[in-house]
User: Fold this.
Amino acid sequence: MNERINQILGHMAVLEEELRSAVHEQESRMFFQIKGKRVEFERSVQEEHRKLKTGFLHWLVNDRPQNLITGPLIYGMALPLLMLDLCVSFYQWACFPVYGIKKVRRADYLVFDRHHLGYLNFIEKFHCTYCEYGNGLMSYMTEILARTEQYFCPIKHARKILGTHGRYDRFLGYGDGANYEARLEEYRVALGKDE
Assistant:
């Protein structure tokens, strides 16, 4: 890969991490503190949340009818998501040690904290838990598959694609076959050291 591109990617990664840290620090100072697995809001914020909370009956009457109608379809996806979770987790558990790939930490991707929000009623919290699980699972799975792709075929596509994972930009250029086997081995060794 071009050294200039490598430098830019490294700089972008540093800036993205700085931005994440700065935003998190600002949010933490303004509204809440994380204590272990608990999120604690200042008393004034807790009181404001209680005032904003919509009661279940009021929420049920004022919710969009299409949301209630499509609910069974949405929650019908829970079983396929659980099966996917089980399969991908088993795949990682069984194969990554064989390949020398560092395992993806599930807790880094599946985060359940919206139930601490006092302005949500129990149905809204349930919806949030479902979304936290589904989106967290997709991110967790994406990282597992990205590490798999880096191990077996770290080559970019000829066509531009949307939604690439964070490792993709560092892959080999399409058609860049010089020293492919040696470079592939470098990608594989790097996966054992991944943080």
Remarks:
- The CA atoms of residues 115 and 125 lie 5 Å apart.
- The longest strand covers residues 32-35.
- Strands lie at 32-35, 38-41.
